[in-house]
Amino acid sequence: DLAEAHLLSLERLRAGAPSDAFNLGTGRGTSVAEIVEAVERATGRRLPRKIGPRRAGDATRLIAAPGKARDVLGWTATRSDVDNIITSALAWHQKDWAAQSPETVQD
User: Fold this and answer.
1) 52 with 39, same domain?
2) Helices 32-43 and 82-100 sit at what angle, rounded to 10 degrees?
3) For 24-68, what is each residue's pLDDT tens digit?
4) In terms of residue numbers, what domain contains 95?
């Protein structure tokens, strides 16, 4: 999703439009707990948790408003399911880590 939005932005700039800023997101929030639970489902492992009070300055919610990206770029998030995002990221990292392992280094 993000790569698509960046490409659309670059195409817009190439067409002569001025630079601009866009919020890229779904317009829905995801809690840290929801992300942790998705990681647990993807890995099959329980993660240690330490839940404490909110710290001074912590935002209660952060949600990107993607309306401008939709209106100007024609972009909307299509890969917004947290489980799919975590599974995809985990697969990429596992592939990247395997590529960097000492066994793959050749003389």
Assistant:
1) yes
2) 60
3) 999 999 999 999 999 999 999 999 999 999 899 998 899 999 999
4) 29-62+80-107
